Prior knowledge:
By secondary structure, the protein is α/β, with parallel strands linked by helices. About 55% of the residues lie in helices and about 10% in strands.
Amino acid sequence: MTYVLGLTGSIATGKSTVAQVFRDQGFPVVDADALAHAAVAPNTQGLANIIHAFGPAILTADGQLDRKKLGHIVFADPAKRALLNRINGPLIRKSILDAVDHWRQENVPLVVLDIPLLFETHYEPYVDGVMVAYVPEELQLKRLMARDGYDEKEARARMASQMSIETKKQRADFYTDNTKSVASLQTQVLDFLKNNHFLKNS
Length: 202
């Protein structure tokens, strides 16, 4: 039996670092962001659908999706964000579930679904448990401003576009404390793997 762990967090809470720890331990990680990028690559139906909905202005000069420009549009307007999710959601979901089926056929003990908007896009029925990469909201705000160069107003708007990290922590089965060092994260993930018998001899 393959255990499917949904890994999520909020913007700038360190989810990618947690995902890398799982990779370093040899467990497959299905990256929803990577699949989302592939779904809207040039000459795909996904990109054609987005151009139809938002216009050709969201393209770069060489025909790529201008993610920053599209991001400004959808983060400022919940209706447009919902429209984008309706366009991309089914394509990404199929890719994710196909990847899970692949790893089930390989009989891996654990596969991690790295999905930033797991709760918002209702992936709970597809996973056996959810782990949240957690930091308190004020630290999240500071990290986001430092990482992406946003002023406080824009950073808070980005955070407000997602379910709060506190709510995600309450809804999760497991969480990692991402306020500490990478070494601490590694220990936390190893403890999770040992406690749930995903490691040999654990």
